[in-house]
Amino acid sequence: MINNHPCTFQSECVSLYNCIDGICTHKNFFPPTFPELIGMLSIAIFTGFASLAGIGGGGVVVSLMTMFFNYSQKEALLGVFLPIFGAALGNFINLAQQEDPQTKSPVVKIRSGIVVCPAMIIGSMVGLILNKILPEFFLISILQYFLFFSCKQFYITALKEWNNENQRKLTKNYIEIPIIDKLSEEKQVSMQSTSLKENLDLIVTICVIVITVLLGFFLRGSSNFKSIIGISYCGFFYWMITLGLVVILYYYFDYIFDRFQKEELKPLKKECLRDSFQAGLFNGFGLGGGMILIPMYLRMGFTTIQSTGTSSFNVLISSFQVAAQVIILGYMGMLQAISLFTMTVIGCYFSSSFIFNNLKKRDRLSLIMWGLVGFTIFAMVNMAVQFFQKWSQYGYQISELFAFQNIC
């Protein structure tokens, strides 16, 4: 993991850091210390719970990484994407097999999820650049604001769902599901009910998006990974390829929206583009993006669990490309990346499966949102405490808070 704090002696570096080539650099995960083991387990459990609710859980993971691995918040914000990707993959494997207890249709609406992917990836690319160059104080302020916003939205949704569940328990019947934008349950087409040709179209579309993004990254290269066509890092052609990738992804969004989205939702095209880009932008900051996507899917007529399930699919796609950039750009070492990814995939799959099945059986899926309210509050408080602790280690220098970094 990158750390720009200079050093001359080992004593000048904080715990879990080594003075290497005049820079305090975080130790490798192996052999792990006891706090690191607890941190790995905590990240696996918390990201499992967070991704089950359709968010990346970046705020919680950043707090855990600073608490147990002693990362600076700047480092944690750059390295958070690997556990988010691992959690999203583990959770998707679980949710892809589940159905909504109210509509008896799949939890993950892949057709709608694919639509927002290109714009969300564009936002993630922009967010990752801003994450690298903006001062730590600005990033933490942004993170705290949206954690508060997220907590408020989770509370409103949790309270609504809790009341609905109580009503169902009293009447022993499911209440009518509100449908917004004149959508009905019958009009919601699941991937499982579509033809083989349509399913192949979805798979091909996903592959085209992923291959396009990876090809763009390999063509332009990075500071630690040479371009396969010899492009100089941060040169003219580097940024031209980046711009070209943005244009192609925008074209993908325009084409995929018209191809896969229902006619009733066509007037929401601009709103979908805006929300998808914003979700990607926050994902680039390590925030996930579910806090933007879930309200958007609710406005499209999805139930709460379908909104969170489809959002988790978007987190999977977007976090994959951001995680790839983190490794290619050298923000995290390969050993740390593999360790965090493996732990969260395994931990998230089992934790999300156990939690979902038990809550579904008891008709208390709203507890997912209530849990996220608590986790978000914890992340806000812990992040503030960790921020001032880290700042004090550098002698409370204002320059450390407002220093911009050069992306190149």
UniProtKB/TrEMBL annotation:
Transmembrane region(s): 37-64, 76-96, 108-130, 137-156, 200-219, 231-253, 277-298, 310-331, 337-356, 368-388
Keywords: Membrane, Transmembrane, Transmembrane helix
Domain of life: Eukaryota
One of the record's GO cellular component terms: Cul4A-RING E3 ubiquitin ligase complex
GO biological processes: protein ubiquitination
Name of the protein in its database record: Sulfite exporter TauE/SafE family protein
Organism name: Paramecium pentaurelia
